[in-house]
Amino acid sequence: MPPRIPQREEFNHWCIEKLRNADTDQFHHVNNAVLATFFEAGRMELFSADSVKPLMGGANLAVVRLLMNFHREVFYPGQVSVGTRLAQVGEKSFRIEQGIFDREGCAASAEAVCVLLDIASSRAMPVCDALREQLLCESERK
After folding, report:
1. Which of 3, 55, 61, 71 is most exposed, with the fewest beta carbons within 10 Å of its own?
2. Cβ distance 75 to 25 under 8 Å?
3. Would 3 be classed as within a structural domain?
């Protein structure tokens, strides 16, 4: 069964990424590793926001699981829009859903599970209440 293809209106955080010739592979489409980098840019857009970053307590954001679905090829030249939304906040993790869109619609989608990583111990740390509240507030913005 093919994965569900998300729609633009499902996302509330956006970043634009320019496609470069160097992003292409021997098949002349944008390489899947580049799409993973675009997804990372979208996640960083959410977690580096001025309203969120100070609440992270100096911790790093680490991806512990990444599932990507490729719906169709993306070709150079052009640009893509990366949509991101916070789907769930757990005790120590976040589930983030994303889509990469060009003029034709969604070309790829992803689900990432991330944790806050304590720099000193390199272990996942609990999500504090203030960060949880801010992220939930951010996830409701359109």
Report:
1. 3
2. no
3. no
